[in-house]
User: Which sequence fits this backbone?
């Protein structure tokens, strides 16, 4: 037991706890152990692998714990800075902690004064879970090591080292013989991916892996489906009733089918139905075949969010995050003076790349206040020692912050993108200078045409009401020149008309999902031109808004340990 390399010691601020390695880069622990991760570094070490130096980690998944000793969801999944060459834990089937006689369970923790670790022996009490959350533990003897502070997050194992749960609450001074653990099936409620790693005797391992692979795809694509209806379809008319309150996520529904529904058929039906929603049937025409071949790229966004801090007109809050496997990982957040934003963003974008998978299709996304939408972020340099514009080095887009936060518009935009994925024809709807069209007329035109792309011949400040129409109507893509006509009311030829004509020709035939990549190519072409300042694409701005690329985590981004 003491030689198991996957045992981890977690330090965050003044808090010390335990954890256990479940994949080359992921460690499970208690949320309260890393409660100060917002202001203090999280450090993970492996006492039984002394050749490994301590690693930094970030909180990738949070169970929703809100701070109280009896609050549910006291779980955190940590993402290590890099993979470690250690074998992860093996899990026992659910319920293996019980028996007659009850098996002895072992926990490896780090009480005060024992940085190398100590072992504690306990047994699990049979019966119902406490508050449907915890299994109660009682000490095997009255004289052994108690579950004191430092054991929180420790794996609870059988004698053969297989894990049955995690220590979630340790004893107080007046009751050193009692503790609590989260059984593996409860951990999986908060992190459904764990279900793929835990053996369930009633299910074929390949069927379970398929189920969770489809769930990850659905989350990554922002699939608009009802988890409760999927559950009812999977269990059939005579299966277990829908739990009170339903399911908060697809993963929660999938986990419930795996753990709580007898037999293997429901897992297969749930997966089959989910697969049919991910790949709806289409007519097998030549056009449909071509469309299927040009599948949408799976972007891995690096998100730069800028908003007013409320501390003064010159003060903003900047938050940088990265998405990996459909999960958002915050890299940093800071309040800054506006003049300090560019240097900070350059540094943090570089750090965010360490969070992406090696084969990720990166997409730099600036979520900006409406008055910042014309900011030349694509022209910002990559760094102090690399003058390449960000928009030439990577696909780069902007998103309107108020639209990013609107549930109504997010819902409508997802429907538009699903239609675009189906291969429907798209065209650029032009908004030119000198038009007699009133903003309400433009809104009606865009809605009647079910517009997907709108191009403006002028920057936002030249005719704000027209841009308001484009932003408040669910048009997924808006393009415009950052510089040009200061007054869109003029008549006659102008640089904006040249811009629109060149833009229309340059994006013709490009699928909307590919526009970020196409615009990077156009920016790079302009930057390489003999006279880049006069090239029509030198200052093109792309607002590209696919909500499926930015799934929100189950817990709030500003929770104490997010």
Assistant:
């Amino acid at each position: 037991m003491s030689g198991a390399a996957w045992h981890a010691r977690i330090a965050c601020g003044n808090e010390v706890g335990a954890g256990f390695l479940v994949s080359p880069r992921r460690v499970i622990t208690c949320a309260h152990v890393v409660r100060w991760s917002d202001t203090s570094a999280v450090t993970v070490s492996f006492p039984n692998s002394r050749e490994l130096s301590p690693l930094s980690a970030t909180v990738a998944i949070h169970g929703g714990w809100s701070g109280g000793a009896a609050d549910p969801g006291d779980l955190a999944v940590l993402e290590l800075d890099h993979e470690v060459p250690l074998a992860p834990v093996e899990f026992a089937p659910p319920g293996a902690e019980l028996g007659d006689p009850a098996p002895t369970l072992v926990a490896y923790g780090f009480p005060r004064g024992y940085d190398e670790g100590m072992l504690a022996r306990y047994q699990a009490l049979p019966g119902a879970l406490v508050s449907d959350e915890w299994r109660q533990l009682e000490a095997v003897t009255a004289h052994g090591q108690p579950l004191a502070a430092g054991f929180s997050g420790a794996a609870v194992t059988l004698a053969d080292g297989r894990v049955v749960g995690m220590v979630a609450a340790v004893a107080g001074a007046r009751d050193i013989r009692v503790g609590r653990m989260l059984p593996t099936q409860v951990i999986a409620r908060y992190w459904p991916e764990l279900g793929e790693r835990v053996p369930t005797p009633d299910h074929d391992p390949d069927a379970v892996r398929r189920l969770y692979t489809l769930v990850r795809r659905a989350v990554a694509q922002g699939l608009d489906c009802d988890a409760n209806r999927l559950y009812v379809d999977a269990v059939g008319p005579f299966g277990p009733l829908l739990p009170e309150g339903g399911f908060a996520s697809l993963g929660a529904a999938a986990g419930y089918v795996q753990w709580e529904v007898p037999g293997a058929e429901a897992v297969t039906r749930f997966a089959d139905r989910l697969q049919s929603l991910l790949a709806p049937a289409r007519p097998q025409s030549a056009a449909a075949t071509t469309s299927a071949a040009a599948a949408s790229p799976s972007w891995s966004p690096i998100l730069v969010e800028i908003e007013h801090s409320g501390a003064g007109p010159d003060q903003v809050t900047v938050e940088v995050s990265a998405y990996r496997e459909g999960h958002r990982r915050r890299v940093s957040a800071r309040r800054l003076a506006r003049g300090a934003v560019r240097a900070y963003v350059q540094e943090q974008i570089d750090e965010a790349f360490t969070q992406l998978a090696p084969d990720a299709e990166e997409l730099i996304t600036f979520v900006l206040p409406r008055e910042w939408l014309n900011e030349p972020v694509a022209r910002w340099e990559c760094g102090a020692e690399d003058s390449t514009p960000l928009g030439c080095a990577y696909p780069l887009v902007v998103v309107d912050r108020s639209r990013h936060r609107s549930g109504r518009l997010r819902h409508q935009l997802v429907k538009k993108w699903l239609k675009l994925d189906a291969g429907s024809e798209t065209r650029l709807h032009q908004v030119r200078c000198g038009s007699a069209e009133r903003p309400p007329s433009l809104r009606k035109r865009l809605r009647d045409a079910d517009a997907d792309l709108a191009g403006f011949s002028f920057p936002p400040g030249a005719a704000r009401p027209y841009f308001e129409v484009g932003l408040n109507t669910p048009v997924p893509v808006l393009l415009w020149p950052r510089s040009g006509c200061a007054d869109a009311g003029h008549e006659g030829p102008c640089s904006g008309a040249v811009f629109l004509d060149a833009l229309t020709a340059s994006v013709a035939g490009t699928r909307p999902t590919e526009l970020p990549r196409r615009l990077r190519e156009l920016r790079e072409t302009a930057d390489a031109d003999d006279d880049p300042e006069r090239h029509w694409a030198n200052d093109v701005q792309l607002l590209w808004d696919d909500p499926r690329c930015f799934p929100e985590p189950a817990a709030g981004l500003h929770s104490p340990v997010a």
About this structure: The two ends are 32 Å apart (CA to CA). The chain has a mean pLDDT of 86. The first helix runs from residue 184 to 190.
